[in-house]
Amino acid sequence: MDYKIIALILVTILFIYQIINKYFIFTAVSRPIPENVRDVYDITTYQKWAEYTSEKTQHKIYQELVSYAVFMLLIIFNVFAFVEKIVVDNVYAKAIIVWIFFELVNFIVDIGFEYFDTMKIESKYGFNKTSNKTFIADQIKNLILSLGIMIGLLSAFIGLYLWLGDFILLAFSLLLFLFVLGIFFLMPLLAKIFNKFTPLPEGQLRTKLEELLTKNGYKVNEIKVMDGSRRSSKANAYFSGLGKTKNIVLYDTILELMTEEEIVAVFAHELGHGKNKDILKGYLFSLLQIFIIIFISWLIISRVIFIQDFAFEKLNYGFAFILILNVVIPFINMITLPIANSFSRKREYKADMFARKEGYQEALISGLKKLSRNNYACLNPHPFTICMSYTHPPLSQRIAALEKEM
Ligand SMILES: [Zn+2]
What we know:
The mean pLDDT is 88. A 4-stranded mixed sheet has the order 1-2-4-3. The chain is built from 14 helices and 4 strands. Helix content is 72%, strand content 5%. The N and C termini lie far apart (57 Å). It has helices at residues 3-28, 43-76, 79-84, 91-124, 132-164, 167-194, 204-215, 252-257, 260-275, 278-302, 317-357, 361-374, 383-389, 395-403, and strands at 197-199, 219-226, 237-240, 245-251. Helix 1 packs antiparallel against helix 2 (43-76), helix 4 (91-124) packs antiparallel against helix 5 (132-164) and helix 10 packs antiparallel against helix 11 (317-357). A hairpin with a 4-residue loop joins strand 3 and strand 4. With 406 residues, it is mainly alpha-helical. The longest helix has 41 residues, at 317-357. It folds into 2 domains: 3-27 and 35-181 and 279-403, no CATH class; 195-251, Zincin-like (2-Layer Sandwich), CATH 3.30.2010.10. Zinc ion binds at residues 269, 273, 348, 351. The site of zinc ion has 4 residues, from helix 9 and helix 11.
């Protein structure tokens, strides 16, 4: 069996999938808007959104096409095996040169598209705040940073693999497990490093939030406002803390955007997630996904024979990384994400129902409408797009579920 042919077929399937995906996003703007969300945007805003989305998506389709063609040519003509020969026979040097070559090719392919996207499209709709100079500087900074990180990771991996052999699978899995667990507990700490927190002043909102939590068997430790507006206009609220004692965090953006009743409603939804242990479930599923990826990656790396189909004499770790990151992971994601998303959407409905049970049906609906407007959400996505990439059900379906009779 020729692994090169298999790789080319997988890359082509991924490309077709991306194009179908983009096509449905592109055509969503002309789908009729459901009755229950007609009031989210006024007609001018909606028109602007529709033009912006279709222009962006069309541009992305061209970019996808060029990237696909370039990657296919690199594989078909064994360019990576050729690049490897320009350095001395050293497993680290060979891996790093192949990786640098690939990053540079991507950089050259993407920079024109990125430039057009930021300076022409984003500017046209008033989102861009970057100048030519900043744009170039940012791109170069990103390239250097990404090269630095990847070369570091690649070298560390090769070193570990040569030292531990197939044990690396076990070591990697363990490390990852600790990492995911770490994120789970470290998130609140990290948030504290990057943001400023101030206590929410005494008042109705504070009392209502406290009442909601105590009523559901939780103890409130502190309620704080985070300066999320410094980075993004996205509004949010969450709660953290182990066991029954909880800290509530509200973004300052949500305080500006919503009424007290709506904030409590959004919070009741979050509380629903807490009651159903949803965050943990989400984490467990991604962990499973990561283990599948590690296992298949290990199969690739431990089967040196396959590398000969790509004209290499010995295993090139840089090339193995390229295949894993550009073929294996996207392919596994393409299969597992729709499953994960469908579970996630079910959990969202359940959390909405919890907020409804607490008496916040109307406030949640108006709060969600404001969030959608604020985030420039698509009101009428195609079912294919929902299935493949929506972790939350689209607004109109959430409202329909909330308004359905008990
Ligand atoms: Zn949710």
